[in-house]
Amino acid sequence: MNYTVAYDCTRVEALPEPDDHCIEGEQTLEAGAEQTCEPYPDSCTTTVLIEDGGSQAEPIHGGPVTELVFDVNSGTQDTQVNVCLVPGSIDYSDPTAAALCAGEPTCGTIDIVPGCSQQGDCNCDGRVNSGDRLCLISKFFNDVPRGTCPCEDCNVDGNLNAGDAVCITLCRFGECPITRPVGR
Fold first, then answer.
1. Cα angle at 34 between 30 and 40, to 5 degrees?
2. CATH code of the domain in which 181 resides
3. pLDDT per residue over 125-169, tens digit each?
């Protein structure tokens, strides 16, 4: 199966490495299928190819198939980006595919919200300093809400933990171990 996704490249752009830009979705993984992606920044499209990998893969059921990740262009926060499956691009590469059921290609939007502008800045004051380590500790042990600053997850693993404290310390001295695109 393959398909092409078009997006508004005045607001977002595909990450340069296809492996970073295109991640197998839950249903692709469950089916045991292999996925490759080819971003075409000049035409603001990405083509996704999903194959059974030479084995008898399970059917792909409804749900997330592919996750596309984009860099946000500057000056586009608090806007939306149109993303569409290109009509006619869905190809099952199987003559019996007429029996398959697929929804109509649709368009949607991605909301661009303000993101992290300074990795390690847990308290969102625009600087990385000892106040950020205190912020993280407060979120661990006190009744301080988590998720109030997009930069609090310094090591970008989806959790607040001791790894973020190490990451904040390294970022304080200009040695961030993980780089995250601005706005993400």
1. 125
2. 1.10.1330.10
3. 888 898 999 999 888 888 777 777 888 888 888 788 888 999 999
